[in-house]
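Protocol step 4 of 5: obtain the predicted structure for the target chain.
Materials: sequence only (see below). No template structures provided, no constraints applied. The aim of this step is simply to have a reference model before the mutagenesis design in step 5. Sequence pasted as it appears in the construct record:
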Amino acid sequence: MMERAPAPKVSVIVPVYNRENYLGKCIDSILAQEYRDYEILLVDNNSANGSVRVIREYEKFYPHKIRCLSQPKQGAAAARNLGACAARGAYLAFLDSDDLWFPEKLKIQMFFFEKKKDVDLMYTSYARFGKNGLMRGDELRKLYPRLLDGHILPDLLLECFIWTSTVVIRKSVFRELGGFDESLATGEDYDLWLRAAVKYKIFGIPLALAQYRQHDENLMKSDLLSATNPSEVEVVKKFVREYSDIRKTVPLRAWRRRISIPFFNNAYTAFHRGDMTLARRFVLKALAEYPFSLTYFRYFFLSLMPGPLLKTLMRMLRKGMIDE
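Step 4 output (structure tokens):
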């Protein structure tokens, strides 16, 4: 009887839904890792295009490295949870199926897990790229000269700076937290990081070790058609309902600004899609929460302008000629 191979140290979980065009490069970036003690779990969410064919081809060529799981279309949270249930590794790493890792990503993170025995979740900075290549490098370093670690909860509550495709978490901690909340349509990753930050130690590596792919499909993702709050607002409000004492540590003005940002992000997206009615609706909600931002007022008045003048001003905005 053939002996089963020893369990890998890391289980890499990739939720897949209609990512035929990007999935191969995503898997290649995992297979190119300098750190080799891992398995890959590809969890298909009932894709309608050729994603499953891509998965099966890789599974055939790497049968000892890649496993394919499938489920009815239930979303990324359920897919990641299914992958975590099947994972054999002591650590879980997550990668979205349209994004990439740099080759040294897992090696550096596992090196720090060996050095820092008290760390339970680790994240890194990341770069952003599009169809023409690298767009912006090291997204977090320009915001945080030193990536936040240790007791990061007050900062994390004000802004989600942990990106899922950079995270490695101990499987035992993931299970203790109950995994991703599948009742949330979006924002389930932010919800988990907040809950983790209450009790567990988080460490940030100030290196861009993953790449976020910016393309039309994820640029169009938003809560624009929702009549309720953006998901990010729902996540933080849900969290402070459960941990009301933590909310008291955040100054009221900072909290109001925090709640306003997702509304403005939706306004910004609608504005650049040309839907001025929707842009005004969301920017007014942002102003209702935080009436101290010149940017919010600027976009409100821009949304009232006639088309030709607006196009000229939008070109100036894109070139960075109009700043806060």
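Step 4 remarks: Residues 252-273 form the longest helix (22 residues). The mean pLDDT is 86.
Proceed to step 5.
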